[in-house]
Backbone:
């Protein structure tokens, strides 16, 4: 292979990396812009929730559909179309004159983001061979890790210096560059099954089922005191599960299914999606709680928080290429398992560090261990996921890994949030009665703190009105310790999730040679 071809390959990787970075960054970057948007649109945080939810929902729902279209009609074509759609939607979002236009634009932007993310791994796998493939997938894993954790830093800087539209406008020049590089340097893949019928029933049921389940979890997250049996929650979740069962029944019967259900019978593939889910529900979900701790309770600004969180995301830049190189020499399975154990230790260190006087000085050792896990596992997961997959399956494998990573993040945010709420409320219930104040005032304050939840309870306890009360210091001490109790439980729970993921990998994943032998037997 000549030098020019090598150069073209790495430029192609740059194009795909830009797309992945923008697509994943836009999952989190909007969070830090919400206070500015509230003022800009003269609205409330509740009304702005759909700026977040529209992207999360549509992104998760369309990942598999875009993967299948790429497998059928050529991954470069669908990747390029997704990239162009993403850039156009970003420009519209920056100019959005109303909230409804911004919500719609975010949904369209998510379709583009899903197409870029779901096909990037398969395109890298088909544009590289041998050891270069492992290194390239490792670098792509670095980009995934960095983009998922750098939202507060990049978003905070852009909003602080240029206003909220900048978080969308910044995608336009980089997106145009990625379009040009993709057109020139990315190699197209064969159009597998282009003469097959599109599985419209499968696409529709998978979209409806995933939408109902994820939206049900979002509703529960927004209303933590609603019961799981409340029809507004259980109706969505049960309905979504029923539709997904129908989806599976359709897939095992149609001639050209959207997903080959037989893929889920491969232990190695099951191991990789368990790791993807554990990464989402453990590490990525925890990032939301860590950001709230650093901003709402320690008092760092968005930019200061983002800089400190480089302790986590920075490792992806260092370890991604290293993991890619090592993956060709050592067992990816045991490297992943060992890295997940390191992450578990990191979460337990975080739980131990949390206290009323906690600062970055106490948090950074645990954050470093979390960063090492994220930096190692993501690139290894990309490479391991492709093992045992036929060329025509690579797009769907990439899509499924991303679906489970995103679904894990949604489940983790809801599940960890409920754990935090329960611990926070339990601490308030047991300690507030110890304050010497009238019962009526006690009940009113407790109700306000519980309704505000752990994230906003600090604001109430330290408000100007509350500071004037004789028992203010006692109340503030209890609120902080209640929050710490919830955060400790969240960190321990995340550690357990990561360790369970590592156990699943140890039991199900295969070593490289074993995986290849299994692949040959399955497809002879």
Residues:
């Amino acid at each position: 292979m000549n030098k020019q071809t090598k150069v073209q390959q790495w430029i192609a990787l740059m194009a795909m990396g830009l797309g992945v970075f923008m697509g994943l960054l836009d999952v989190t970057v909007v969070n830090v812009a919400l206070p500015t948007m509230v003022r800009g649109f003269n609205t409330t945080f509740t009304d702005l929730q759909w700026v977040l939810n529209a992207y999360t929902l549509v992104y998760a729902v369309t990942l598999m559909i875009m993967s299948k279209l790429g497998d059928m009609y050529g991954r470069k074509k669908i990747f390029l179309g997704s990239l162009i759609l993403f850039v156009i939607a970003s420009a519209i979002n920056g100019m959005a004159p109303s909230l409804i236009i911004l919500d719609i634009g975010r949904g369209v932007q998510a379709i583009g983001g899903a197409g870029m993310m779901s096909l990037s791994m398969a395109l890298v796998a088909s544009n590289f061979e041998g050891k270069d493939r492992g290194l390239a997938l490792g670098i792509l894993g670095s980009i995934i890790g960095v983009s998922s954790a750098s939202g507060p830093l990049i978003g905070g800087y852009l909003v602080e210096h240029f206003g909220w539209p900048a978080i969308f406008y910044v995608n336009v020049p980089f997106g145009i560059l990625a379009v040009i590089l993709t057109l020139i340097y990315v190699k197209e893949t064969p159009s597998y099954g282009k003469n097959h019928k599109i599985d419209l029933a499968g696409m529709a049921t998978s979209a409806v089922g995933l939408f109902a389940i994820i939206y049900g979890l979002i509703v529960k997250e927004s209303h933590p005191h609603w019961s799981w049996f409340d029809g507004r929650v259980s109706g969505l979740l049960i309905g979504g599960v029923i539709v997904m069962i129908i989806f599976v029944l359709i897939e095992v019967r149609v001639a050209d299914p959207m997903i080959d259900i037989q893929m889920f019978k491969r232990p190695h593939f099951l191991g990789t999606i368990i790791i993807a889910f554990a990464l989402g529900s453990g590490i990525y979900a925890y990032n939301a709680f860590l950001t709230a701790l650093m901003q709402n309770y320690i008092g760092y600004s968005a930019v200061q928080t983002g800089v400190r969180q480089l302790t986590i995301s920075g490792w992806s830049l260092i370890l991604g290429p290293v993991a890619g190189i090592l993956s060709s020499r050592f067992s990816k399975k045991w490297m992943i398992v060992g890295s997940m154990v390191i992450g578990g230790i990191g979460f337990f260190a975080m739980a131990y560090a949390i206290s009323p006087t906690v600062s970055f000085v106490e948090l950074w050792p645990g954050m470093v261990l979390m960063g090492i896990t994220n930096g190692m596992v993501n690139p290894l997961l990309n490479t391991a996921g492709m093992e045992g997959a036929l060329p025509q399956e690579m797009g769907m494998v990439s899509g499924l890994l991303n679906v489970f990573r995103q679904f894990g993040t949604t489940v983790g945010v809801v599940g960890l949030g409920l754990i935090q709420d329960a611990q926070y409320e339990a601490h308030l219930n047991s300690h507030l009665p110890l304050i010497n104040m009238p019962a009526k005032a006690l009940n009113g304050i407790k109700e306000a703190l519980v309704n505000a939840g752990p994230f906003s309870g600090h604001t109430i306890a330290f408000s100007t009105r509350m500071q004037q009360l004789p028992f203010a210091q006692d109340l503030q001490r209890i609120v902080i310790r209640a929050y710490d109790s919830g955060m400790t439980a969240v960190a321990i729970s995340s550690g357990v999730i990561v360790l369970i993921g590592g156990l699943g990998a140890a039991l199900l994943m295969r070593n490289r040679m074993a995986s290849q032998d299994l692949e040959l037997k399955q497809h002879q």
The mean pLDDT is 85. DSSP finds 21 helices and no strands in the chain. The domain at 1-194 is CATH 1.20.1250.20 (Growth Hormone; Chain: A;). The CA atoms of residues 254 and 504 lie 31 Å apart.
